[in-house]
Amino acid sequence: MNIDEILENVRKAFKLTTKHFGNTVTFERALFLGWYCDLKHPCKFCYMSTQKDKIKDPKKARRKLESILAEAILMKRIGWKLEFISGGYGYSPKEINDIAEMVAYVQKCKQYLNVGVVDLSSINLDVIEGVVGAVETVSKDRDWICSGKPLDKIKDNLLKAKELGLKTGITIILGLGEKEEDIDKLLNLIEELDLDRITFYSLNPQKGTIFENKPSVTTIEYMNWVSNVRLNFPKIKIITGVWVDKIPMISPLILSGSNVITKFPVFSVFGTKKAHWIEKEILSTGRELIGTFTDIEVLKGEKVLEKTPYIEEEINISKENIRKVEELKDKIDEKINSYISKVLKKVVQ
To answer: Boundaries of each Radical SAM core domain copy (predicted)?
Structure first.
């Protein structure tokens, strides 16, 4: 497809997004549980694959519960939805369930899980909105790149989630050797699984992996994938992630059909020049931004956002997990203050 055809698709995709989702763009943020992957064969692009042999005690690579809950509280405060709870390889179904319950409880809303193929019968589905499968790539080398994540098992898990009344989605990382003709493979997969959402990321090459010196996806290539999904599935939620070195990609991705921007390291960027630049990129498309990356008063809890993407609902969890949250209150508050202090050291005055 030549560039004129891609840009024509982008124009159509932008109109379709407006028709079905209105004029707003939001931020989201994956909530990671830790830095250890217990897959025998971690994905070949992943930072965790470079750390696996260095971590002698996997439990020490887990985040503390108060840190997870503090981040969940702050994300709601600044109007960022949690994209999903992730990084759960090495956690038992009960541990995943307990964390999901507590995160949903402090946020007062249901959560998405992206924690591998999990036994959904062990999860309190009253706190789960949906399940995401880490497909990662539809390139011909997928079985080699992601040998620890068999596609058939991911598909089975997502179809089971659908049967249980949950929403479903997948993640795709662009820059792993995919070709333009692979777009059709992705479109077929979305249709087969009847997905509600898709998250795209651009590869952030990690030192120590085979992709360390590989180029990532170009802006026009990224736009082509996003606009094709929007044109073929007008009502699907499209989440696009870029790293802080690719901020100029944001506005083209929104124009191509993206509803949500994700991936940024919140507390090291919030309030900085890059954060202001990111907001400007979004607003330059004519969209309204819900949530903030720059308002320190909101972050500190001194001001409340007029609009957020959150719809609060009653969350029922075990008494044991309610008690855990209450017992951790002081530690959670301490961690919240620690995150805010980290931001204030870097904020643009």
So the answer is: 20-245
